[in-house]
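JOB MANIFEST
job_type = single_chain_structure
chain_count = 1
residues = 100
[input]
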Amino acid sequence: MRATNVAEVVATSSTPDEVPALWRDLRPDVTLCDVHMPGVDGLELCQQLRAEHPDARVLLFSARDDRTTREAAQDAGATGLVSKTASPAQLAAALLASVE
């Protein structure tokens, strides 16, 4: 089964520092954020975004798919954690679950 028209990319960012301003301007349904980034990591960015905007939904994306990372994502306020090895259908399902 192939999911279509699940998501529209409204912005991308090359640095985590740009994300809060982009979020304020665009108010996306969900923000997909890598856990491991230069400077601020995705967990910290998720916490910051959720502190400023409690209604922000953040789905974290990581090469690590273990209990520790999942718990850290949950503690940061993420709507979920999806593995970088996930299929496109699994990613689509995680995005949809984040906005339901």
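[summary]
Residues 19-99 form a domain with the Rossmann fold fold (CATH 3.40.50.2300).
The CA atoms of residues 24 and 96 lie 21 Å apart.
exit_status = 0
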